[in-house]
Write a structure and sequence with these properties.
The complex is a heterodimer of chains A (about 50) and B (about 350). With about 50 residues, chain A is mainly alpha-helical. Chain A is about 40% helix and about 5% strand. Chain B is globular and about 55 Å long. The chains are: A mainly alpha (about 50), B alpha/beta (about 350).
């Protein structure tokens, strides 16, 4: 009887922790398509700040 | 702000200008280096070195002049604040002294205090720019760029990863343990820092990190720059340990020279045909490099603008600051921008 009660408590705790972890945020996986590419911003006409 | 046709004449003013930089840490050092390379004379005061009792220990880039007393910088043509927060008291002093000022500060309360100085700045005929770092700063410039890609913008969401110097790391730690702020359907909402987990894919090489709400100032400044946007949020990346210890003192010392960081901006809205569309842009690199490039670009733009910019407190993403010009200046200073080419998935933001 004691063993059964301990098993029930352990299962309940595990379920509660798993549930907590699930509801603490949706998270997710990184996008499986696409990616990052260089973005070019048109330079300002007549302006160069890289050198004096 | 100065237009492209005025820029040559404006640049002639630069070599005459003296910029006083307060704080020469990881980010401040890089700001000074950018300004020196642009031919601007720079004087530096480092409160940390002064506090240690040995002002001679302050290390400044070659060509800059170190001063022991911060008041000596109030005679400069402009003051740039690269110290840990708060910046509002020094901005107030600059306004009283009639000196234009640029702040790199990102503390939420501090940014609000600086914005509250707008009336004093207008009355004094002084120009101040706040939030001229990575976030706020580059984040707002990216948002301004993304807003040009849509006909109507409903939502702007910012995510940040990484810290510059030790002070920045402490600020990041404190922000995660404080209440965040966001703009949601016409009202400000305050939610606990460390909540609202979202997996955010930053530009390479940073890639995917869990991000959480935090007390960062981006929504406050974006609200000023994009008043028609209905939802604004900002999140920072954090580990589970960061979240667990956010309300405690920092348990491990921050990285002395900062680390790699990234900023990501996402705009949601509609195009001319009414179709919903999301656009995402970001930048990655050494966090201090990203922040310093924005700060230097803003400083040079403010010098070039002279009296053409109206007195008051501005943020880099304000129309008055010509954010796309600032973004181009930032790229010219070495920031590599990236855009996401995939289809953004909906989140709970």
């Amino acid at each position: 009887m004691r063993l059964l009660r301990r098993a029930m408590v352990a299962l309940s705790l595990a379920g509660a922790i798993a549930g907590l972890l699930r509801i603490r945020g949706k998270g997710g996986v990184p996008p499986q398509e696409g990616g990052w590419r260089e973005l070019s911003v048109p330079p300002r006409a007549g302006e160069s700040t890289a050198s004096p | 702000m100065v237009s492209a046709t005025e820029s040559d004449a404006a640049r002639l003013r630069r070599p005459q200008a003296i910029v006083g930089v307060v704080g020469c840490g990881v980010t401040g050092f890089r700001v000074v280096a950018h300004l020196l390379r642009a031919g601007i004379r720079v004087a530096v005061h480092d409160p940390a070195a002064t506090a240690s009792g040995d002002g001679s220990r302050v290390v400044v880039p070659r060509g800059a002049v170190a001063v022991d007393v911060v008041d000596d910088l109030l005679v400069a043509d402009m003051v740039v604040l690269c110290t840990p927060s708060p910046h509002a008291p020094m901005v107030s002093r600059c306004i009283r002294a009639g000196v234009p000022v640029v702040s790199i500060g990102d503390d939420l309360a501090d940014v609000r205090a600086m914005l509250d100085l707008d009336r004093a700045a207008v009355a004094g005929g002084v120009r101040a720019v706040v939030g001229a770092g990575m976030a706020p700063g580059l984040s707002g410039l990216l948002a301004a760029y993304l807003s040009t890609q849509l006909d109507m913008v409903d939502e702007l969401h910012i995510a940040v990863h990484g810290t510059a110097g030790p002070a920045c790391a402490r600020q990041h730690h404190d922000a995660l343990g404080s209440r965040s702020i966001g703009w949601h359907d016409g009202q400000w909402v305050e939610l606990p820092g460390g909540s609202g987990r979202e997996l955010v894919w930053f530009p390479e090489p940073i890639a995917a990190h869990d991000c959480y709400r935090a007390a960062i100032a981006d929504p406050v400044l974006l609200r000023r720059s994009f008043p028609s946007v209905e939802r604004l949020s900002a999140r920072v990346s954090a580990t589970r340990r960061d979240r667990l210890t956010a309300r405690l003192p920092m348990l491990t010392p921050p990285h002395a020279s900062g680390d790699l960081g990234a900023v990501r901006a996402e705009a949601r809205g509609a195009r001319a045909d009414g179709a919903r569309h999301d656009v995402i842009a970001g930048a990655a690199g050494a966090t201090a490099d990203l922040a310093a490039a924005v700060c230097a670009a803003v400083t040079m733009a403010l010098l070039d603008a002279g009296d053409s910019l109206a007195p008051g407190v501005h943020s880099p993403s304000d129309d008055s600051m010509r954010p796309l010009d600032l973004l181009a200046r930032t790229v010219a200073l070495g920031v590599r921008l990236q855009e996401f080419t995939g289809v953004a998935r909906s989140t709970s933001w």
